Amino acid sequence: MAKQHGIIIWEKSIYCEVPGKGWTRQALPRLEDAVTVIQEHCEKNASLTFLYDPDTLHTEFTECPLGGRAVLREALASAHDSIANPHTAWGFQTPWPLSATSGGNQGTFCSYETAPSLYLLNQTLGDLGYTMARAFPMASLTAQGGITPGRTGILLVIDQPQGQTFIYIYTSTGIRTCRKLYGAGRADYDIWSEISMVLGEYGVTFDDGGQRPQVRIYQAPGNDCKTQCPYWDILSRQAQVELFDFGSLIMLTRAVPAGHSSSLLSDLPRSLRVDFGFQVTAAIFGFILVGFGIYAWLDLRKEHKEITARRRTERSYTDQKYRLEQNRREIENLRTLYSQEIFELSRGRLGLVESLATAIPRDATLLSVSAGGEEDARFHIRGVFWNRQPAASSAANAGLSHSSTPLSAIKSELERTVGGLLVDETKTNMTPDSGEFAMEGTTPLPEHAATVPGWKPSTSLPAVSPTGGIPRPAPVQ
Description:
The protein has 477 residues and is α+β, with helices and mostly antiparallel strands. It has 2 domains: 4-58 and 115-273, no CATH class; 274-477, no CATH class. Helix content is 37%, strand content 24%. The chain has 12 helices and 18 strands. It has helices spanning 33-41, 69-79, 81-84, 99-102, 117-127, 191-201, 225-228, 232-238, 246-255, 276-359, 388-398, 408-417; strands at 4-10, 13-18, 22-27, 47-52, 59-64, 90-92, 96-97, 106-113, 131-137, 153-159, 164-170, 176-182, 214-219, 240-245, 364-371, 378-385, 422-430, 436-442. The strands form 4 sheets. It has a 5-stranded mixed beta sheet, sandwiched between helices. α10 crosses α12 (408-417).
């Protein structure tokens, strides 16, 4: 079982409970140094009970006369940015009568952090292996202070050498108040005189209808109130005084329910931590589950294989049926496109042959015409100009090369008479010495080629059927 340690953070001091050794106090210049002190005096995996000074952890209080946690959360979140911060803790104190603000109804004080100090402290200690079981402000002690209704009660937490005390007063007339006194290290600060002034301020008298007031004093380590209090004899004679150390103070803190409304830990993110015993139990339970899993896997393996094979066969049949249907649709589509392609390409070749009769001049003779050879839309024309001198003279007068000018008329006539025909000028040339010329280009493409991205005329028959097909026409010569 994890050991329990008590931690009290109060002004510039931190008090640590070391089991078997008592209490130790160390200076706390910064709140961050509390982690180092806890590591020095507390074992890892220990359970920590925190009692803190609200001012040290940047906690403020505001009146909430109507009560109701959900209502206050919604109302205060719009007025206080710190409450809207998920890393900032906040909570309630015991309801007190706030007649001046609530018209006599029972109200309460809402405590909230102006900076996320408790969250960071809890997170850092959790990373180091500690568990913050409880954390309460000093005002929460009033919930378990053992005050008798109708009787004046006083609760004191005092450290005279440090000049600081916490006072909770509950008079027989119903007045409740919490006061904190701090001398800030002043040598001339008399803490017992200040306590006497606070008691007089609230009209606390030791003549209480025959019942002596209850006074509970929790003194810090190194204090001896019996010798340090100048009016101890009077106080012990006229009041019912009980003197305790900080160990009893931590026990009183542990008596406060963990889910008490004043606990700021209830709003902080939580993480699950397990001890060694829980880890062993979880490991055994895990082995049992693994054993059952292996047994079930071995028992159902054969059936699983049969079911898997059957499903695989069904999927194979389904895929084959789908592919056969898809192939049938593609074959029908190819038949249609192929027939249309043959017709349109043949019409373009026929237009080329018919236009050559008017495009070739009289001084030229065609040697060969090829259309629809290796590429369906390509054509090749070869010829010769018999009257070479006039052709060369006209080219020189125009300032053009001998290889292109005599063929311009042929090119223009072909492209004009056959719509969609294009002459490839890079492969059109003429030899000036012999008068021979060659011209290449493309006949009009089928109409569907413009709507099919990346269309290229087919150079072979589509494999429509192993028993038959559509023969391609021979090239036009």
